[in-house]
Amino acid sequence: MRGQALLSVAALALIANANPVERRATATSCTVTEYSSIPSAIAACTDITLQNVAVPGGQTLDISKLQTGTKVTFAGTTTFGYYNWTGNLMQFGGKDITITSAVGAIIDGNGQAWWDGQGSNGGILKPDHFITVKATGNSLIENLHIRNYPTHCFSISSSNGLLMQNMYLDNTAGNAPNARSGGLPAAHNTDGFDISSTSNMTLRNSVVLNQDDCVAITSGNNVTSTGMYCDGGHGLSIGSVGGKSNNNVTNIYFTDSIVLNSQNGARIKSNFNTTGFISNIQYRNIAVANISIYGIDVQQDYLNGGPTGNPSNGVIIQDLLFENIVGTAQRAADDYYILCGAGSCSNFTFKNVAIIGGGKSCNFHGTGSPC
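Request: output the structure for the sequence above.
Response:
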């Protein structure tokens, strides 16, 4: 009997060692190496390492219901299988959570499997977002190195008190055409950080190398984006605003950032014949270079995702500050472009703004306008 008991104990030990959820020194700490073990780790642990996890096609890496105070660390390389669908590939959420990575860790979205030059505008089905975030309390997301995401990288909504920092988003592999993109860059609609219905958030000290907005805020209050390095995309944006469930954007601060080789530098856009409220937006200490469309852009004429040249005045835009914005635009671009609806823009202030190289077109000026 004693031998059988020892054999049983040994067998149980082998089974435990084979389990892809490995408990570490404490009862709330574990390492996950298999996608299927993530739910049990979330239920049992508050210090979770995701080590070389391969997410199957058609599945979501869902850590949106973390226990309060949980820390998740990505280690090794996280990968995603292809599937013809529109589901999100990752979901983050919880209160007072920390999501970070070990040194050298990579999150690779396998964007090449979906890229066709059309992004979310058409073509093959693609994930709606790479990562959705709903975080509250003193939550922190930092030090993630993400590459090759299919479309919109981060969609941050219904969050409060979130800090995101030291992020590196690299979609440069999507700059080149592929067999499906008709000579266009293969990656499209690859926004870095989309923020909506979020308050008291800071995004700082991060790099975005992509083909669309570096940061786009469509609704929210008291959001700061600072220390950003944006290359290849559409710049630092408010909007488009109007026609959504939340159309208020207030107290937004873009500061101390660099925007290179992008369509726009600082951009605010609202949708035609909609209503909304945009107030106290500040762009300060922004360097731009090789801008191809607009250095500074405020326009109220978006319809079906593009400008029409015919503005409407249902979205109020007031109390804008553009300060210490300098750099260059291409000859075919506009250094400054402002197209407001009748009576809907007020109290624009420009201080030490000097973008050169292109033209200018403004139907509203404000204090110190360079246009």
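The radius of gyration is 23 Å.
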